[in-house]
Structures are given as C-alpha cells and as structure tokens.
Design a protein that fits this description.
This protein is α+β, with helices and mostly antiparallel strands. Helix content is about 60%, strand content about 10%. The two termini are about 20 Å apart. The relative contact order is 0.09.
C-alpha cells in the first residue's frame, strides 16, 4: 500500500526525458541534429516532448499510427498531411504520431479501412481527444498506455472510448492518471458534468434532459458538441456515454 505513493512521488520528480527510454531520446537527438531535418514544427515537438525544452503550443489532437510491412509508409503519411490542414508528424519507435488542432471533417475509422485496402497494408490508429500541451507528460501517458493495451492486430481503430473501457477493466491506476488529460474541459465545468449525469439519467433523451435541468434543447446540443470536440466521446451514443460516465465515477 505504501509502495504506490512512493513510486508516484519518484515519477513526479523525474524529468520527461528521464521517463522515456534512453535509446529513444538518443534517436530523437540524432534526428533533430541532422542538417537535412527541416520541419520546424516537428523539431519543436521533439524538443518539447523529449528534451524538456519550453515551447508555445496550442492544445492538439493527435493520431498514433502503426503501419506494418509496407514500403509506402511515406506515401501514406503524405496523404494524411494533405487531407488534414496544418498537421505535422513525428516518429517514435515504430509509430508515426500526427498532430493537428482543427476538427476533422472526415471519419477516420472509415478512412483507415479504405487506406488499408488501397495500399494492401495493415494500418492501426489511435485518435485522441484534445490534449493540453502545457505538460509533455500528458502525451507520454496516453502514448504509453496505447502501446501497452490497445496496439492489437484485431483493433484497427480506437479512440478514448476504447481506451477508457480497456483500462476500466484492467488498470484503474492508469485510468485515474489520464482522467484529467482526457476530460479536463468537463472536470473544469460543473455545468457540463451535471449535464452528462442528467443526459444519462434521461436515457440520452435531449427533450427530457432539457426539462429536467431547465436548459434549452439548442444549448444542450451545443454542449454535447463541445464535449465531443474536447474528448472525442459522442455521448449521444450509448457506449460513449457509458465510457464518460465510468471515467467521471472514478
């Protein structure tokens, strides 16, 4: 019982560069030192995530992509850069991580299936919610948890919903650590949190919820859209609503 708090204290004292494996940090240092490496945004992100250098980043969404047994990885990543405006990517171990800060107008899960068929390649992808980049540890936590629990051959696409469900059954300590990362906007706004409980209690019925909490239907719809924008949990759907409710209950 005493060991877990001691581990947490030690981890808090570690710098982010100490938390990554040394060989990964060394690869990053070599990459950004190369005279041919010219992508400034990617270079800044490497330095922020791995070398503890202060950078001014907006809050980002990110995609973690695993592309297996393909000679067309560059073509696939160039495709993502073309369709997601203002995006850029970095490479970590065997993964590509693509960062962007605008709401996507495409259905990523269907896109992955299409790309897998077009390129005859196995692509797996995790799609995050909006993550604060004030602390590089936010990305580190989600990346490590995805790698440990969700990078599976039978799971070509996953998001926060799958992440929450997987951890709820297997690793509540990790789920508690990433709770404020995934739903920071909801936790900071009691009205949003109360809306979630009321919406679930009224069986995801907007009209009944509006009467229950004395809020206009349009306002509720706007707030549900905001929750999805921030968390990638569309609580108009049962399983997304249950995932968010489980996370709030911890």
């Amino acid at each position: 019982m005493i060991l877990r708090p001691l581990i947490d204290i030690i981890n808090k004292r570690k710098g982010i560069s100490d938390m990554w494996e040394k060989k990964i940090v060394n690869v990053v240092k070599e990459k950004i030192a190369s005279p041919t490496y010219i992508n400034k945004l990617a270079k800044d992100m490497y330095e922020f995530l791995f070398l503890e250098e202060k950078k001014e980043f907006e809050n980002f969404y990110f995609l973690i992509l695993s592309i297996k047994n393909s000679n067309e990885k560059q073509e696939i990543m160039d495709f993502f850069l073309d369709i997601i405006s203002g995006s850029f990517y970095i490479e970590i171990e065997n993964y590509f991580v693509l960062f962007y800060n605008l709401k996507l107008d495409i259905e990523i899960d269907k896109l992955i299936l299409s790309l897998s068929e077009d390129f005859s390649v196995n692509i797996r992808l995790f799609s995050s919610g909006k993550v604060s980049f004030e602390n590089p540890n936010n990305f580190y936590e989600i990346y490590q948890i995805y790698k440990k629990y969700l990078d599976k051959d039978n799971l070509y696409y996953c998001s926060n919903k799958e992440l929450i469900m997987e951890l709820y059954n297997k690793d509540n300590d990790s789920l508690l650590r990433i709770k404020p990362i995934i739903i920071s906007k909801v936790l900071a706004d009691h009205q949003l949190e109360n809306l979630v409980y009321a919406f679930v209690n009224n069986n995801l019925n907007i009209t009944k919820t509006a009467k229950d909490i004395y809020m206009h239907r349009n306002t509720i719809n706007n707030k549900l859209d905001l929750i999805y924008k921030e968390t990638k949990l569309n609580i108009r759907h049962f399983h997304d609503a249950m995932a968010l409710l489980l996370l709030l209950s911890l």
